[in-house]
Amino acid sequence: MSKNLVIVESPAKAKTIEKYLGKDFQVLASYGHVRDLVPKEGAVDTQNDFAMKYEIVERNQRHIQAITKALKPADTLYLATDPDREGEAISWHLLELLNDKNLLQDKVVHRVAFHEITKKAVTEAIAAPSELNYDLVHAQQARRALDYLVGFKLSPLLWKKIRRGLSAGRVQSPALRLIVERELQIEAFKTREYWSVDAAVFALEQAFKAKLTHFSGEKISQFSIDNEDLATTTRQILLDDANGKLTVAKIEKKQRKSNPAPPFITSTLQQEAARKLGFTTKRTMTVAQQLYEGIDVGGETAGLITYMRTDSVNLSKDAVDDIRALIAEMYGEVNVPKEPNVYKTKSKNAQEAHEAVRPTSARHLPSKIQSFLTAEQFKLYELIWKRTIACQMIHATLNSVAIDLSCNDGMHVFRATGSSVAIAGFMAVYLEGKDDSKEGDDKENFLPALKEGDAVQLNDVLIAQHFTEPPPRYGEASLVKALEEHGIGRPSTYASIISTLQNREYVTLETKRFRPTDVGRIVNKFLTEHFTKYVDYSFTANLEDELDAVARGEKAWIPLMENFWKPFGELVIEKESTVQRKDVTQEAIDELCPQCNKALSIRLGRNGRFIGCTDYPTCNYTRNLNDAVSNEPELVEGRECPECRSPLLYKSSKFGKFIGCTGYPECRYIEPIEKPIDTGVSCPQCTKGQIFKRKARSGKIFYSCENYPACDYALWNAPINEPCPKCNWALLTLKESKKHGIQKICPQKNCDFAETVEVEQAE
After folding, report:
1. Are 472 and 478 in contact (CB under 8 A)?
2. Among candidate residues 289, 259, 303, 268, the one with its CA nearest the CA of residue 125
3. What is the pTM assigned to this prediction?
4. 307 among known catalytic residues
5. Which of 20, 148, 292, 307 is catalytic?
6. Which of 100, 546, 598, 690 has its CA at 20 to 30 Å from residue 92's CA atom?
7. Domains of the chain in sequence order
């Protein structure tokens, strides 16, 4: 049996490290946390210095037994869990468990930490062990206790005042507030009209545009031209005064430097992966974990990146030397700065022993190891590699030029701007992405080489209508950025914060943007009105700073807990007795019920918010939140029920609007408001009807014969009027998949015909 037992968190990591250390070492995995708080009231004893009651995580019971068995014959125990608070806490929990079993007598116990899984890093860590850092343990305990107390005290209150099954969290609630407040800004936004005026000019065999900046000697602002009549008049005056020509009045040329972005930390990696790869934060961290733990590259297993949970932008001297040498080889000495680029870590609590997220070896070129990686692993590794290489390259030098074009003795002025890359520098490898950038934002605009006094041809004056837009909803990248800026949570928690908000159905992700649900709005309203201090951004950030101070050994954790708990616990008790359910779930509006003349309010139901009478259940008047006010049911003009000849009525249900018979419940005739669309394809089953595009009550699109129920032929995929070339069936369908793109396929079960088509053809 091995004399040395090493404990890590992940089984994949355990296999790699065991190969490095040899036969005298056995490496086992804890599979994450081995203990957690008992999921019951009282797990944190607020009357007894916040003593915590732990229990073994059930799924890890057998892994603890394996560790216990392997420890008995061993002389030395190495705790090699991840180099952060959670990793330190896992090591501490293991020590507590093993001490309780009296298994550590006559054993030597070491704490070792490495930030990359390479043979050099692992063997050096084993050769220079340290001790457990109890400051980090206490910081993690305090964080876990705070999260427990907030969750176990606020969540039951939400159940009583809003709806069962809801939850609140110390960091998820301020994050929800960010999303709701952005939605309220969008709803309150007042759109303004404005018109742009551009000159379409031609000079030196090049066409380009210039923006109107001065008209009749007056400077033009965004809203100077705010209607079509004024824009049309302005255009005609400019055309008349210019008479087909503009003069180059002034040329400004400048050079500016653009510096490379620092190497990745956890948050910037999550942001860039969202912008450039479309990865969620959770997906990014999962793939990064795989790259960190080790990939088999040509028979040699090694970690490809350093530890991915870090807020330090430091790079080791060895890594920098290797990167600089590689830049010289691949991009030339001219792209290597005289001195290494040094970046300053923003976080006060960044541990200088940590490094930024970087390749463990710059020599692992993405192109060389691509065949050993999955598509996701390759994309993320290439992103990390490029950013790391670029951060040690020279700055880029950009030429910018601005040309003023005038007419009518300088009374009307247009300005054209452009830029070009003089020296690419780091841009030859990597350029940082932008949040909410419009298509074309990053494109360079090149201008002809003109001189002051030159005449240019004015082809036209272009006017275009625009409207101001509200601030965009948060996407994954911009939300992570906002969380970081406000100090809400820490980079390692961003993925779980976002997942929790979605899992609790407080927000939905639509077209990669977060929208609050009706329940999310109500929960946020309750917390911001009644627990204002605890969802305040600065309070949350200050509490994180205090936890960081505990981790640095500058502050004791029990006084921190006492300062938080006493006012918070008292507030929960107060709100339990003073806040009524209707105060939370109802919102008064300035409108009376059309049936009983009592006040109406916005209320929360099973299917979201709606408008209902405050005299419910005596009065049962309701309508959808966004429906127009109507005292009378809306009849369908010029139509009657085909079954009983009664008038038809527009109705609503949880599935949306539909047309129903006024004779309900005696007559149950209904039909969708959206009329089926004729596809122009004949039904191959009955050969009499046409195939129609329809929408199911669930909202899903399908295609079926117009003669239903006499003919029950139906398809999920769009039919096209082409016979199958293989089995001669009367039609084919279009099917789209990530793997094959858009294909023509035969809908017959026994026919496997499939043919990829171009997008234009499919459309």
Report:
1. yes
2. 303
3. 0.72
4. yes
5. 307
6. 546
7. 4-132 (3.40.50.140), 141-189+472-579 (1.10.460.10), 193-259+396-467 (2.70.20.10), 266-390 (1.10.290.10), 584-622 (no CATH)
